[in-house]
Design brief:
The chain is of the alpha+beta class. The protein has helices spanning about 55-65, 165-180, 220-240, 285-295, 300-310, 315-320, 325-335, 340-360, 370-380, 390-400, 405-435, 435-440, 450-460, 465-480; strands spanning about 5-15, 70, 75, 80, 90-95, 100-110, 115-125, 130-135, 140-145, 150-155, 195-205, 215-220, 250-255, 260-265, 275, 280-285. The termini are far apart. The protein binds adenosine-5'-diphosphate and magnesium ion.
């Protein structure tokens, strides 16, 4: 590289809103129906049908606007964005152009650093298009219009993100925010949270923006990072060899980890935007904004600082919990039984419980062991009424049989009280049968303890609790010393 180049990134994120129905029709907005079974005459753009705006979609957009400290438009209008695509039945997409519902917000890349905030230029509502399905029918392209009319909030940042790492950090914060606001499920694989990255480079120290390429088709954080890095290198190489970057839309190929040209980017005038005559302007009353503001849930940054200050959780652990609102809710519910050590509960959730959830492909919100049940199990170990070594077995038992923590712990306690007297006998036997080793231990060769534990385990036929044996054995060895 001959010169130094600065990277400039602006992101456009399409956030699919979790409304019950579509943005302009009463069709269900759920994912996964058979192709073309979830699109009515409005979604299909039949002549004579009229769109009706979904109030929930408006409210969710306002919710987002308030959370990022943006201006909420008093009057917001919808526009037609005209283009021809097989999966766009009307020949235009209803979107917003002038007067978007949300403008000029901010979101920090680093929660505690004010100057890490990225400007959100706008967030506007629009309908999604259908899907063209290649490769399923030989010689044909299939069209699935289930997605047509799905409500999207398109969030557009200023071109001020400086590295691919920061782009990912920003996206993680944003995903965390929209999921905690419960306006989006954040599922990147299903396309509920997808991102286009606009990338350009300019010589270090200059201020004029370079020509950008827009990369589409990015459905994982890893791909976004790799696509931006590839694009940066490609553009620098072009510029350094005296060529120009063309403003175009590029696709990222996961296999080659490269971007390639898809089409020369349309200019705004190609879309012939104009206000949609079928829809009235949306007038948003101050009282509506205030009532939404009053009902906002605790925002992730606030939660993050509470976890750190009140619960003493590390930043890393907190990030893991905030990764999904249902996980942080489960965690907090588990503490409600009166646990003193949140970290213990965290460990059980992210360890054995996550393993069980993953194995059964169940979301934590549908966990077979409820948060309070897990809390009670952890509490029993915290209070010492259950040996920690039994936790896993009991949790698995709870998971498989649905038996409550209380019943299983009581059962365990009555069994272990039986074996306490057995244990006493086994210990005595082992100590008398192994004089030599006992002496060795007492003369400082403490490693021999392992052998003695093994002897007791043998007598218990593997039923003994090694930790308990360890403790009791030590007591005896030291007491008679
Ligand atoms: P569209 O992509 O629909 O034409 P805009 O022109 O408003 O819309 O730009 C969309 C995104 O591209 C924004 O996130 C913006 O920050 C980003 N962007 C614009 N110019 C550049 C540039 N030169 N380099 C990097 N990003 C840019
Ligand atoms: Mg764009």
């Amino acid at each position: 590289m001959k010169e130094n180049w600065d990277l400039v990134i602006g992101l456009e994120i399409h956030v699919q809103l979790t409304t019950a129905s579509k943005i302009f029709s009463a069709t269900s907005n759920s994912f996964g129906a058979d192709p073309n079974c979830q699109a009515n005459i409005v979604d299909l753009g039949f002549p004579g049908t009229l769109p009706v705006i979904n109030e929930e979609a408006i409210k969710k957009a306002i919710t987002f606007g308030i959370a990022v400290n943006a201006n909420i438009a008093n009057e917001s209008i919808f526009a037609r964005k005209n283009y021809f695509y097989p999966d766009l039945p009307k020949g235009y997409q209803i979107s917003q152009y002038e007067a978007p519902i949300v403008a000029n917000g901010k979101l920090r890349i680093h929660p505690t650093e004010e100057d890490s905030a990225i400007i959100i230029e706008r967030a506007h509502l629009e309908e999604d298009a259908g899907k063209s399905i290649h490769f399923t029918h030989q010689n044909y392209t299939g069209i699935d219009l289930n997605r047509a009319g799905t409500p999207l909030l398109e969030i557009v940042t200023a071109p001020s993100i400086k590295s691919s790492k920061d782009a990912i950090r920003f996206l993680k914060r944003l995903r965390e925010l929209v999921t905690h606001l419960e306006i989006c499920d954040g599922n990147m694989q299903e396309g509920s949270f997808r991102c286009d990255a606009n990338v350009s480079v300019r010589k270090s120290g200059t201020t004029k923006l370079g020509t950008r390429a827009e990369i589409k088709n990015l459905n994982s954080f890893k791909f976004i990072e790799s696509a931006i890095e590839f694009e940066r290198a490609r553009q620098i190489e072009l510029l350094e060899s005296g060529e120009n970057v063309i403003q175009e839309t590029r696709l990222y190929d996961e296999k080659t980890q490269e971007t390639r040209s898809m089409r020369v980017k349309e200019n705004e005038f190609d879309y012939r935007y104009f206000p949609d005559p079928d829809l009235l302007p949306v007038v948003i009353d101050e009282t509506v904004i205030e009532s939404i503001r009053a009902s906002l849930p605790e925002l992730p940054d606030k939660k993050r600082s509470r976890y750190s200050k009140v619960l003493n959780m590390s930043a890393k652990d907190t990030n893991l919990l905030l990764n999904s609102p249902s996980t942080s809710k489960y965690f907090e519910d588990s503490l409600s039984v009166g646990l003193k050590d949140p970290k213990a509960s965290f460990n059980w959730i992210t360890g054995e419980l996550f393993r069980l959830l993953k194995k059964s492909e169940v979301d934590i919100s549908d966990s077979k062991v409820s948060a309070t049940e897990l809390g009670l199990l952890v509490l029993a170990m915290e209070e010492g009424s259950l040996p920690k070594s039994k936790g896993k077995e009991i949790l698995n038992n709870m998971w498989e049989t649905g038996t409550s923590a209380k019943i299983l712990i009581e059962k365990q306690m009555s069994e272990s009280s039986l074996s306490i007297s057995d244990l006493e006998n086994w210990l005595e036997e082992v100590l008398t049968e192994n004089h030599k080793q006992v002496e060795e231990f007492r003369s400082g060769k403490e490693k021999i303890l392992g052998f003695l534990i093994g002897q007791v385990m043998k007598k218990s036929k593997g039923r003994g609790d090694p930790r308990l044996i360890n403790d009791e054995l030590l007591k005896k060895l030291r007491a008679q010393n």
